[in-house]
Amino acid sequence: MDLFVINRYDESKPEIDSKSREEKILEKLQKKIKNKKLKKDDSFIIEDKNSIKEEVPIEKINEEKSEIKDEENVSQMEIENSESSKIKEEMHEVEQFTVLGEQKFEEPQAIEMILPYWLANPEILKSDLSVPGKAVSELNYINEILRKNLCTLKVKNLFPVQEKLIPWILNVNKKPIPFRPKDVCVSASTGSGKTLAYAVPIVQHLIENKVECKITALIMLPVFELATQVAQVFEKLCNNLKVRSLLLSKHRDFVNEQHLVIEKTSDGKFNSKVDIIISTGGRLVEHLFYTEGFDLRSLKFLVVDEADHAMSQVHNDWYHHLIQHLGIKDELQSNRLSYRDLISLVKDDGSFKIPQKLLFSATLSQDPEKISTFNLFQPKLFTTTDNKEDLIKYQERKLQENQRGAFIGKYTTPAELKEFYTITEYKLKPLTLYALIKKNNWRKFLCFTNTIETSHRLSFVLQMLFGKELAIEELSSLLPVKIRQRMLQKFSNGEVNGLICTDALARGIDVPKVDVVISYDFPKLIKTYIHRVGRTARGGNQGIAVTIIAPDQIKYFERMIQTANKQKVQEIKSDRVFEEENALNFANAQKKLRKALEIEEKERKNVSKPTGLSLFEKLQKQVKPIETNTDIVPESWKIENIKNEPINQKKNFKMKDKKFKKNVSVAN
Ligand SMILES: Nc1ncnc2c1ncn2[C@@H]1O[C@H](COP(=O)(O)OP(=O)(O)OP(=O)(O)O)[C@@H](O)[C@H]1O
């Protein structure tokens, strides 16, 4: 019985010829290579002399190949090819492993975002302002004087966002403890009336509930101009009412401002003199640190306007200081609180230690990390859209478990806005802009650039081109605040026709009836675009937005427009004949600009020691010789505008805390 078999070398078997074995292998290889080639070369791309790619059918190539190659050559090449393909295969295997030190970057795949439930399921409001909402005169839940004050603001009917939010905010704040009002996020298009949507319920709440003067509402804004604008709205709303609002302003003497906020009684107590504070981050922190008796612990409403801006300002730590001031532990800021925790947040007077947070923006961030900055409590999102596609998406999403993509109405622009773009060469941008303004007879326009330098130069060139026909001014953060305010005022009342500015003005600024917004420089972010174009078509008025783009920017512009789900952006053509006719004027204007800039450069070099002058002041000085010309130049290029400006206002604030303690008035 054979348990196992051992194969031994058998001399009787004929030895296979090693040569014929090699030939067989070679044949096999050749076949394989041919098959592979046939599969690969369905079409073969060759380049001609002019490097234009041409598609040549496979048959033709094979024919050509067979003419050139004899059999020997072919087999030789194929052997080489087989070797190289082997090497390639081996290489491919090696590529499966990460080689340390090798630099190989693969483009990361975009990750689709899954929205949290509250972002994916917003309450959708209409964005069309042409349909009149509820008449203010019929709003029984609003105080009569407040209604009159609304009329002085020319508000007769509510806009959709106001119609929804005013009663909603009032109602949730009427519910008894332990009911805690949800925090609110509002993403509504520019000019849709968000300011009144939070201002009216706050004033009404104070009318109904105010017992003594305490800081009950804090309105936070990113820039001073915006804060001023909102403060004006509150001032008008509070007219003839026992509700006090105050703008905290870094341009006011700090000690004086302290006296406007609080007073010290004869028994050493501090009383608030205001109910509503409107502020920017820096000034609020100054008061939190230096104003004795500045107490925000009775705060009921915290409004963050332009909330996405506040979220992206990582260095902006006002919120952190505010929470510290309120003495709220981190764990109590959580979204899910036990009943006991909730009760621990209730103060003796029956109100909550944490104010209701109301976040407003036209481009609200949906980045979870950013949103978490504000530790929102059971947030509720309100958005506006009339876009049918958006609404269908919304219905579909409701049926899905995982809600993906951007939330509905994220980038809604006003229905009254008409958007255009125009294509021109980089060098010709000022001339194209001039031609567009002239040919379309635009008389009130805002023009956005990406840098202060561009604003400075463009305002000069445009004014040279228009001469006395139009007044062009520049508005940038380099200018002292008083000049900025004056410029805005002049622009508002029509004394200035065109304002050239940077994005410092893009957010929230409300100038009535701007005809056109021009993006002279391509905006880098969709958010910037939305805020820029939102300076026109406000409050239900018609408006036009034009973006000037260079040929190589078209694809970026298209991509940006797609992100915002816009289909109606049309091309507007500039009059090339007009441009040609004015080419000489343009060249002259540029010559003058070069001269002015040369003087500027010289002046900069001359001032080597620190002079206490701001860059703006230096800029003004260099243009002095230009004033002797008969040309009109933008005010920002004249020296007299800055003569009366205090050079460093911050000096006034030194030792303010000590001064305050000494100077605080004693109430009788
Ligand atoms: N109900 C209303 N009726 C008429 N005009 C209104 C009404 N509500 C607001 N307005 C006006 O509409 C303009 C835009 O309002 P507002 O500045 O509040 O817009 P916004 O939504 O805050 O815009 P942005 O996002 O650009 O800051 C203002 O001039 C305001 O006075």
- What proportion strand? 5-15%
Extract low-pLDDT stretches: 1-14, 40-80, 625-630, 639-668
Gap between N and C termini? 126 Å
Report the sheet with the most strands, covering strand number, pairing sense and barrel closure.
8 strands, parallel
Pfam family, one: DEAD
Domain Helicase C-terminal: 416-585
Function: RNA helicase.
Enzyme class: hydrolase
TL;DR of this structure?
The chain is α/β, with parallel strands linked by helices and 668 residues long. Helix content is 42%, strand content 13%. Keywords: ATP-binding, Helicase, Hydrolase, Nucleotide-binding, RNA-binding.
Describe the structure.
The chain is of the alpha/beta class and 668 residues long. It has an 8-stranded parallel beta sheet with strand order 3-12-4-11-10-5-9-6. A 7-stranded parallel beta sheet has the order 15-16-14-17-18-13-19, with helices on both faces. Helix 18 links the parallel strand 15 (472-475) and strand 16 (498-501). Helix 1 (18-40) packs across helix 3 and helix 10 runs parallel beside helix 12 (318-326). The N and C termini lie far apart (126 Å). Residues 1-14, 40-80, 625-630 and 639-668 have low confidence and may be disordered. Residues 153-155, 157-159, 162, 188, 190-196, 362, 508, 510, 534, 538-539 line the site of adenosine-5'-triphosphate. Residues 175-382 form the Helicase ATP-binding domain. Its EC number is 3.6.4.13.
